[in-house]
TrEMBL record:
<protein>
    <submittedName>
        <fullName>FAD binding domain-containing protein</fullName>
    </submittedName>
</protein>
<feature type="domain" description="FAD-binding">
    <location>
        <begin position="38"/>
        <end position="74"/>
    </location>
</feature>
<dbReference type="InterPro" id="IPR002938">
    <property type="entry name" value="FAD-bd"/>
</dbReference>
<dbReference type="InterPro" id="IPR036188">
    <property type="entry name" value="FAD/NAD-bd_sf"/>
</dbReference>
<dbReference type="Pfam" id="PF01494">
    <property type="entry name" value="FAD_binding_3"/>
</dbReference>
<dbReference type="GO" id="GO:0071949">
    <property type="term" value="F:FAD binding"/>
</dbReference>
Length: 433
């Protein structure tokens, strides 16, 4: 039973502040084309790629090439701003960073910029220092990521490239883009997750948008399909714009939770639940703890909007079809009409299938076959994965920023050991609790 519900004003942090004192950093390398060879290629420069590049820098590995379609973390913050999201779900202790090395952490960075924070934001820092749940403003997180990019010289090692293929061999990895090929001794895939597409037969033409597409203005009646935090932002934004909102949730009730993953899985003992258990047991745990949920801060506003009739929630109603018009047909025969339907159907973890040969992935139940000590593909030990791809090794937290830290520690240690011809140190590579 939850007796305390945080107030929605925690969701209203300022966006777009000027952060004095940040080191100037290029968004991309000076040259248009990356070098033809490198020690390490990182595919993806989001928060996971940022963590890996920072960790390798601390290991003394500087011959690194990052490849991404956008600047470091550009797509991450672009999607966040499309949702008008103002705070992270992850608390202050979850941030791109390096395990085992002294570095400026997110909480340190926020405290150094105390004068720029609102009273609400300052109180969240006090909560974090006391060991309680805290909420991080997107503005603070983006400035911190820019600090990491500058202090670890990441921007100057990033090239705007679209990775097409990753082709491993016995002694190297060839990473092909639209314009060139980079040959490296190791590659790290930080591919993230992609939106889950609508089922076949759903109409996705005019009047229907996915959560990561720009929203047309002026809709009087909006239908939101989905039960997670992304759907909550869509509902909140539509209500703020004055629309009548119909919210379709397949479950019988909304699931509110502080973090997107049960906090036990952020601790070594939680991750140890995956160590040594059968594949079937891991699938069961992933199915149980990878369910959509919403931050508690949304609940008071949604309850108020529902009581006022501005929000109509269709609980326990699965969608049968979305038709032109816009009309949403539910499985019980109910039809909900509107001006705009917004789809927040979740995301699908990358297995590397976008770039790696199928025989390398050796997928089982949709998950890549990874070495649990190094997070390398077992059939391509020079290619590693960080992010949701490692879910069946690290558990549900793999997709979270804190899960990136755990994965990065293993991957960076393994890559450093391979490059420097030294043994893999167990306590840096693996933690079994």
């Amino acid at each position: 039973m939850i007796s305390f519900v945080p107030e929605p004003h925690l969701l209203g942090s300022v966006r777009g502040r000027d952060w004095p004192g940040l080191l100037p950093s290029p968004a991309f390398a000076d040259s248009a084309v990356p070098p033809r060879s490198a020690d390490v290629v990182i595919a993806g420069a989001g928060p996971a790629g940022l963590a890996v590049a920072s960790a390798l820098w601390h290991h003394g590995i500087r011959d690194v090439v990052l490849l991404d379609r956008d600047r470091p973390c550009g797509r991450f913050f672009g999607r966040i701003d499309l949702l008008r999201q103002r705070v992270l779900r992850s608390p202050y202790e979850h941030h791109p960073g390096v395990e085992g090395f002294r570095d400026c952490e997110l909480l340190d960075f926020a405290r150094m910029h105390w004068s720029l924070l609102s009273p609400v934001e300052r109180n969240e820092i006090r909560m974090a220092q006391a060991g309680h749940r805290s909420v991080v403003p997107i503005d603070v997180f983006e400035a911190y990521c820019e600090h990491l990019v500058a202090s670890h010289h990441i921007g100057e090692r990033t090239w705007r490239q679209n990775v097409r293929d990753v082709l491993p061999s016995a002694d190297s990895v060839s990473v092909r883009t639209d314009t060139t090929t980079v040959t490296a001794r190791f590659a790290v895939l930080c591919m993230g997750e992609s939106r889950r597409e609508a089922p076949d037969g759903w109409w996705t033409g005019d009047g229907v948008r996915y959560w990561d597409q720009p929203m047309p203005p002026g809709a009087g009646r909006v239908i939101v399909i989905g039960a997670g935090l992304t759907a909550a932002h869509l509902v909140s934004n539509a209500l703020a714009d004055g629309a009548e909102v119909h919210w379709v949730i397949r479950e019988t009730e909304e699931r509110y939770q502080c973090a997107d993953v049960n906090s036990k899985f952020f601790r070594p003992e939680g991750r140890a639940r995956f160590d040594g258990v059968s594949w079937e047991d891991r699938l069961t745990l992933m199915g149980r703890f990878r369910r959509a949920s919403i931050m508690f801060e949304f609940r008071p506003g949604f309850q108020r909007a529902e009581a006022e009739g501005r929000l109509i929630v269709h609980r326990g109603r699965a969608v049968k079809a979305v038709s032109s018009g816009v009309s949403v047909e539910l499985e019980d025969g109910t039809r909900v009409g509107g001006d705009l339907a917004l789809l927040a159907l979740g995301t699908t973890p990358s297995t590397g299938s976008e770039v790696l040969p199928d025989e390398v992935i050796n997928a089982r139940d949709g998950w890549a076959d990874l070495d649990e000590r190094t997070l390398a593909y077992r059939l391509a030990p020079r290619v590693h994965a960080v992010g949701a791809t490692a879910g069946m090794v690290l558990g549900p937290a793999a997709r979270n920023i804190d899960g990136h830290r755990v994965a990065t520690a293993r991957v960076a240690a393994a890559v450093a050991a391979g490059l420097l011809d030294r043994p893999l140190v167990p306590d840096l590579a693996v933690s079994r609790g």
